[in-house]
Amino acid sequence: MNNAPALVVALDFPEAAPALALASRLQGVVPWVKVGLELYLSAGQDLLARLKDMGFLVFLDLKFMDIPNTVQAATAQATRMGADMLTIHALGGRAMCEASAAGRDQALAPGQTPPCILGVTLLTSLGPKDLAWNPAATDDELRDLTVHLARSAQNWKLDGVVCSGREVRVIRQACGASFQLLTPGIRLPDADSGDQSRVCTPAQAARDGSNYLVVGRPITKSDNPVQAARNYLKTIT
Ligand code: C5P
């Protein structure tokens, strides 16, 4: 891959004030911020509008999974709110994924760039023993299932998938150059991995072909978040 991945800072805060305080320090430093379930449930649509006004591209990580009609409507709402990227579960199946893409397309304002819809394949918190339908699955089988889901997501009109650093290379090979890959669990070699067990360095994820790297606590909990963000940027550009 020739293009450097974009850095996405996960604003994992319980309310708007600290999220906006950090965002104002990161203006002009990082292009993307992520709003997840906790912050969205606390601060919602207003916060999204504020972040957009500050010039950020917003990744709305709410991982929709419901009947196709509901996910279509939810994706349409996220599109109207100006989300630039959002997540749904690929395990929701073809009809749900295609409905999400249709909801996005029908809600686009004139001239609006379509938000990128990413599928979550298997949550990286799941191990082989968690597959209820095959408790004897091996790590290889789990990886094969993840690749199968990524290929399915691509056939079902999704723009890309969320994947761990371990899967970037194999999904890139399976799905081609234009499929978007977003990788959380990113750590510089000397950083504390926290509760993430399958971490990957930004340089490795970039080399393997990830398009977006999500970093949370190493930046949000740093004494100098701007310098911390710059340290990550330095290794990927
Ligand atoms: O603080 P840290 O860098 O570990 O934050 C990673 C962010 O990426 C969090 O917002 C977390 O919800 C998200 N994430 C993840 N692993 C996944 C999917 C999302 O860590 N498989």
TrEMBL record:
Record EC number: 4.1.1.23
GO MF terms, alphabetically ordered: orotidine-5'-phosphate decarboxylase activity
Pathway membership, UniProt: Pyrimidine metabolism; UMP biosynthesis via de novo pathway; UMP from orotate: step 2/2
Residues reported to bind substrate: 12, 34, 61-70, 124, 187, 196, 216-217
Catalytic activity: orotidine 5'-phosphate + H(+) = UMP + CO2
GO biological process, one term: 'de novo' UMP biosynthetic process
Domain Orotidine 5'-phosphate decarboxylase: from-to ranges: 6-232
Keywords per UniProt: Decarboxylase, Lyase, Pyrimidine biosynthesis
Listed transmembrane segments: none
Pfam families in alphabetical order: OMPdecase (PF00215)
Active-site residues, record numbering mapped to chain: D61, K63, D66
GO CC, any one term: cytosol
PROSITE patterns, A to Z: OMPDECASE
Subunit structure: Homodimer.
PANTHER family: OROTIDINE 5'-PHOSPHATE DECARBOXYLASE
Role of this protein: Catalyzes the decarboxylation of orotidine 5'-monophosphate (OMP) to uridine 5'-monophosphate (UMP).
Family note: Belongs to the OMP decarboxylase family. Type 1 subfamily.
Protein name as catalogued: Orotidine 5'-phosphate decarboxylase
